[in-house]
Amino acid sequence: MSATAGAETASSGADTSERSVLLLWMIFTGLSVFAVVLLWRYGLLHLMIISDRTYISSVIAVLYIVTCFHCFWRTRAIAREGEITRRCRAILSVPGGARGLDEDARALPGGLVTDHIRSLVQKARAQAAGRIDQTLLLRSLADRLRGSNGFGAFVSDTLMKLGLLGTIIGFIIMLAPIATLDAADKVAMKSSMGLMSDGMAVAMYTTLAGLIGSILVKIQYYMLDAATQRVFSDAVMLTETHVTPALESHPGTPA
């Protein structure tokens, strides 16, 4: 009865934790969408699109949207791993819970952390006795948990460089008419001033879009990396306090 109650409590806490990770991402994204709606309402986004003849700002916006979907997918995956970790702790922490390590831990829910526990069980059976060193297995688990999180750093750097590229192109457009500028020709002077204004608009809007996109991407993936680190820490605590002691005390066939 107590084991069932403990499992239900842990499951409820896991659901809450999963929702908290996703809720944080959704709050941040919601605020970003609200800011975009305001900019569109006051015509600033439309002004940026029509002023940027290179369309680099539009490319930055599309790449940012794609990255947001990737971050949501990774956040969802990490939230599920956190839930699985807590469910494993609920199973293994009850009296007699170490029996869940029998038969390659088939009683545990599937996931990366469970795969790590199964690898520990197989290692304990192979070495038969002695202390179980899970250092290399933990490194593998950390790499698998991080997955494609590095995509965020790549996109953030790419957005920044696209903004700088737009700045350079904008200055080229702005300075190009100066070579053929004739101060006595008022028509040519007016045309040149228009081109210089267009070049400055390209430089400013692409730089602004690149900086804002890069900052927002960094914030999202910072939150994702923090959640990933928490899941990894939970997995280390779980294996060090419940799995390896049981395997070391009952080598070969954990009870």
Automatic annotation (TrEMBL):
Q: What is the lineage of its organism?
A: Bacteria, Pseudomonadati, Pseudomonadota, Alphaproteobacteria, Hyphomicrobiales
Any idea where this protein resides? Cell membrane; Membrane
Biological process terms in GO annotation: protein transport
Give any Gene Ontology cellular component: plasma membrane
InterPro entries in the record, alphabetically? Answer: MotA_ExbB_proton_chnl
Keywords, alphabetical: Cell membrane, Membrane, Protein transport, Transmembrane, Transmembrane helix, Transport
**Can you tell me which family this protein belongs to?**
Belongs to the exbB/tolQ family.
UniProt xrefs under Pfam families: MotA_ExbB (PF01618)
List, for all copies, the residue spans of the domain called MotA/TolQ/ExbB proton channel.
Answer: 142-231
Q: What parts of the sequence cross the membrane?
A: 21-42, 54-73, 162-179, 199-217
Its membrane topology: Multi-pass membrane protein
The entry's protein name is: Biopolymer transporter ExbB
Q: Which species is this record about?
A: Bradyrhizobium retamae
